[in-house]
Amino acid sequence: MKHGKKYVDSAELINKTELYDVDAALDLVVKTGKAKFDETVELHVRLGVDGRHADQQVRGAVVLPNGTGKNVRALVFCKEDKVQTALDAGADFAGSDELIAKINSGWMDFDVVIATPDMMGVVGRLGKVLGPRGLMPNPKAGTVTPDVAKAVTEAKAGKIEYRLDKTNIIHCPIGKVSFGVQKLQENLEALMAAINAAKPAAAKGQYVRSCTVASTMGPGVKINPAKVG
User: Hey, what domains does the chain have and what are their CATH numbers?
Assistant: First the structure.
């Protein structure tokens, strides 16, 4: 794959064989985030688990102390008596059958989906649509809850879900390039604390195998896994 001049220039600042400390890695990410828009910074963590086994799954949610820098559009599936509560808390959309019909018609203008427990029987029918996009409500992520006000507030404040993909890697945003090193580091440390706390009892050997940060258009920077594991 051929990269543009900005990417090539940025890549020259990074030693591909070095495992950087967290602050040094984030400093490089900020310096190499040269796009005309405010790039998202993502953390990619490969874990020493086998997610094919239920007792080695790693999944949860955490509120980033400095948010994600993104305006999160929250949709809440709830019965009529909780619609106004959800909207008052900041939800962009709240309801039931009418929202399900819109989603089945191809509408997807939202970033997080929250549901009350009594709605999951209905919401489950959207599994094939929401699941592949990582939007299906889940109790472990706190998005299936009777307390819709709290869930909406946390989502708007920067709560993110982390979970393994098929290659046992977790991919999560930790903010924007404009945040600077300190805020990005605070977010990264909060996310890694949650991932480390979620270590399965069945996990053997080194838990954090590799850790990389990168901006949307920039090259990856490797972090020493011993510094975050």
Answer: 5-67+160-227 (3.30.190.20), 74-157 (3.40.50.790)
